[in-house]
Amino acid sequence: MEKIRILGISGSLRESSTNTIILKNLAKLLPAHVSFDLFGELHLIPPFSPGDLESDSVKSMKEKIGKAAGVIICTPEYAFGVPGTLKNALDWTVSTGEFNEKPVAAISASPLNSGGEKALASLLLTLTALGTSRNEKSSLAIPNVKSKINSDGIVQDDQTVLLLQDQVDNLLKIIGI
Ligand SMILES: Cc1cc2nc3c(=O)[nH]c(=O)nc-3n(C[C@H](O)[C@H](O)[C@H](O)COP(=O)(O)O)c2cc1C
Question: Pocket of ligand 1, candidates 110, 117, 145: which has the most ligand atoms within 8 Å of its Cβ, to mutate?
Fold first, then answer.
């Protein structure tokens, strides 16, 4: 039987991104019948231009979102906002509806006390515009993220692990499994 797919999208392109690390830790919390793919082509998505021909990278991204039963986005905050690369990628889906009724969990992680809450609020507005399926538990801001990850890329803070597990459980509940 084919596994249920979850797609993880990190808003950071950095090799050692803490947001990507959070997604990799989330993947380990999924049950065995659920697979996890980390989207790795954010850097290939061209600037959004409505109506223009779509590149293969945009088509591939849309296919991955379309095939996923749910999506988990984990993003940093830059200058109080969502990274342009992530917003740009999401904009490509506005008129084609890949996120419409798609269960989505939205997470921000920051080395600051704020947890990137301004970027998270902005991301949630965009996800509402895209018609995603969420509830009041579908978002999480992780403050002081660097102190919560050890040198092996493992989330070592028990409270954060519990909050990540809540996100997984809530997303699967919205998906209906
Ligand atoms: C130009 C710049 C602007 C930033 N602005 C913010 C900000 O507004 N809020 C915040 O919480 N962190 C800000 N940061 C810090 C990022 O949260 C931090 O670099 C984080 O580790 C990036 O996420 P990543 O580890 O997933 O790449 C900024 C960093 C840079 C380089």
Answer: 110
Dig out the tokens for 67 from the structure.
């095939």
Ligand 1 mean position, distance from CA 110 (Å): 7
Average pLDDT for the chain: 97
Ligand 1 binding pocket, CB closer than 6 Å:
12, 14, 17-19, 76-80, 110-112, 114, 116
First to last CA, the chain: 15
Structure tokens at 153: 């890329």
Closest CA to 131 of 83, 166, 93, 175: 93
pTM score of the predicted model: 0.98
- Torsion-angle region of residue 163: left (phi > 0), alpha (psi -120 to 50) or beta? alpha
HSE-CB for 152 with a 13 A CA cutoff: 3
Q: How many C-beta neighbours within 10 Å does residue 21 have?
A: 22
Q: Structural domains in the chain?
A: 4-175 (3.40.50.360)
**pLDDT (tens digit, 9 = 90+) per residue, 41-85?**
999 999 999 988 999 999 999 999 999 999 999 999 999 999 999
Give the span between the Cα atoms of 177 and 32, in whole angstroms.
12
